[in-house]
Amino acid sequence: MLTNRRDFMLQGVAAGALMGLPNFLHAQMAIGEMTLDVVYDGHLTLPGSFIFETMPKDELLPILERLGQDYDQLTPPCNLSLLRGDGRVVLFDAGSGAEFMPTAGKMLDALEALDVTPEDITDLVFTHGHPDHLWGVLDDFGDAMFTNATHHIGQAEWDYWTDPNTVNTIDSGRQAFAVGAERRLQVVADRMQFFNDGDEVLPGVGARLTPGHTPGHMAFEVRAGNTAAMIVGDSIGNDHIALARPAWESGSDQDPTLGAVTRAGLINDLVTAQMPIVGFHLGQGGLGRIEKFADGFVFVGQV
User: Fold this and answer.
1) What is the CATH number of the domain that holds 24?
2) Cα gap 246→265, rounded to integer Å
3) Stretch 234-254: mean pLDDT, rounded?
4) How confident is the model at residue 25 (pLDDT cuts 50, 70, 90)?
5) Burial class, 262, CB count within 10 angstroms (exposed 0-12 / middle 13-18 / buried 19+)
6) How many angstroms separate the CA atoms of 25 and 189, rounded?
7) Considering the domain boundaries, does residue 303 fall inside one?
């Protein structure tokens, strides 16, 4: 059932209050006998220039005003996905951990509200290696956080972040990303399994290569029979300009040109299929559908 934004926010806040998590918008859907939950890891605080700097300001500002998005500051939520069923507890991405931003790294509280511990996770699946998706893979002592989990990452993404030359070829503003990723991935290397575009990572979980944000970024289709959802990671990086103008290049993507091509194609496919999505940095609880709106698209939260 699709609701308008106001109704969704009221219902989401009420659910969060019942679960004892301040500012936690909880969303959930059933996929066959499996349950897909949104796990809130806090939010980021970024300058608007991180995304907007290269965009035509005269066209951009009216769109942002209409959508209620500030030009100078971004505070995107961080929405992990938790899939439970068929004997597995699967977490998509590991969150920020304690070392990236003080406003993020709240995953353990969100898991606790769902009565899930890190030891319960059987499989940890990564969309990509940026800090807000990877750095939570280690605990405060630098050891593996998810001690019973098999870790899964796309082969191309692994190759990129473990390549010692990446720190020299990535742009200077992301060099810390490369150092942090390489260190963490080496700690969990013996737990890691690899997959490629089109592979079935786990039963009912298929990988779709969505490059541009990072070279090997992956989205995941979770399916049981005729019911499915797409976990899009950062291939659709926000619920404002990425949807209103998907073909515009975004400064958040490491390859902005490829990222725009990927985003536009993915959005068209999702709208055609009317497939629910979980977006890592999408508002309204992160779970919903993309719908055509005016000369672009809009995200509509689902409960």
Assistant:
1) 3.60.15.10
2) 9
3) 97
4) low
5) buried
6) 33
7) no
Domain count for the chain, please give it. 1
**Residue 293: per-residue pLDDT:** 93
Residue 140 lies in a domain: yes
The most distant pair of C-alpha atoms in the chain lies apart, rounded to whole Å, by 52
Segment 21-30 mean pLDDT: 68
pLDDT range class, residue 18, cuts 50, 70, 90: very low
> Position of tokens 């309204």?
284
Q: What is the pLDDT of residue 24?
A: 53
Tokens at residue 57, please? 């300001």
> Cα–Cα distance between 43 and 132 in angstroms, integer?
9
Judged against a pLDDT cut of 70, whether residue 75 lies above it is answered with yes
- pLDDT 10s digits, 28-52: 999 999 999 999 999 999 999 999 9
Structure tokens given for 13:
């806040």
In a domain? residue 173? yes
Neighbours of 142 (CB within 10 A): 9
Phi, psi of 125 (to 5 degrees): -120, 125
- Cα–Cα distance between 158 and 178 in angstroms, integer? 11
The chain-wide mean pLDDT, for the chain, equals 91
Amino acid letter for position 105: G
> What is the 3-class SS of the chain, one letter each residue?
CECCHHHHHHHHHHHHHHCCCCCCCCCEEEECCEEEEEEEEEECCEECHHHHCCCCHHHHHHHHHHHCCCCCEECCEEEEEEEEECCEEEEECCCCCCCCCCCECCHHHHHHHCCCCHHHCCEEECCCCCHHHHHHHECCCCCECCCCCEEEEEHHHHHHHHCCCHHHHCCHHHHHHHHHHHHHHHHCHHHEEEECCCCEEECCEEEEECCCCCCCCEEEEEEECCEEEEEEECCCCCCCHHHHCCCCCCCCCCCHHHHHHHHHHHHHHHHHHCCCEEECCCCCCCEEEEEEECCEEEEEEEC
* Any domain includes 302: no
Q: Give the structural domain span for 195.
A: 5-297
